[in-house]
Amino acid sequence: MAHLVTGHLCRAAANWESLEALPGSLVWTAYSIDGFFAVDVAAARRASRWPFAAMPSYSDLSLELPASTKPLDDVFRFLMTTRSPNSLPRGFLNLNATVSRLLDTEVLSMCADDGEYDFACVSDRGAPRRVRLATESVEIEWAAGAVVARPVYDEDRAGELDEGEGVDRLREFVQGLRVEDAPGERARLHRIAGAEAQRFVASDRVPLGLGDFDGDPAAGATVVARRVLPDDAGKPPPAGKAKRSAWWKLWS
User: Fold this and answer.
1) What is the distance between the terminal CA atoms of the chain, rounded to a whole angstrom?
2) Half-sphere exposure of 101 (CA within 13 A, CB side)
């Protein structure tokens, strides 16, 4: 899981205090970065010292998806047969919807590394709107209740993979699957997460260092709010001037 980048993006400032409704097993920090905002959510027991570099815990989150995302259940069954269940963690989808609901805004959540993960999902005020992910052989997109598939070409494994195999197997699980005639893009680091994040924040460059082996996800980031655990009380804030209030802090 090298070169892992994960986070939750918002286009505008929100009521960060509302994130205190997240389970106590999670810690969060909100940042302002180059005209947008990003929230780092991680497991309290193993939070990373590096922002946007640790997977959150799903132990206190539901793994059941809303009825509106029924086609994604079929996608999950496909991923299980291809031994790629981690390509789209159910808990992460629900975390995206929960953060969006609490902040009362549209939120893009993404996770990508150099092998197992490359996906992004969008919810608007708690309602899932869009999901995009890739396995080694097929790219899958869900939006407006429909599932679209595109073959993925990996030039490093040319000859090993049948470019149409993933699509053909996905047809067995997803009714009404729409397949785009043109092959999908070639595999590259953080391809989907980077493209979706850049489109979401409408930036000239890919945010959070996505797609760059030497990228710094926290470059230019300023802490605006965070959850403070009891053991952290009294420790200096990461940046700025602290204004303490119960379990959360704001910086101006």
Assistant:
1) 35
2) 11
Closest CA to 118 of 211, 206, 47: 211
The answer to whether 200 and 122 have CB atoms below 8 angstroms apart is yes
% the chain with pLDDT above 90: 35
Question: From CA 4, how far away is CA 210, in angstroms rounded?
Answer: 9
Confidence of residue 61 (pLDDT cuts 50, 70, 90): confident
Give me the residue spans of the domains in the chain. Answer: 5-251
The Cα 37–Cα 12 span in angstroms is 6
Which amino acid, residue 223? V
> Cα–Cα distance between 76 and 81 in angstroms, integer?
9
pLDDT category, 250, cuts 50, 70, 90? very low
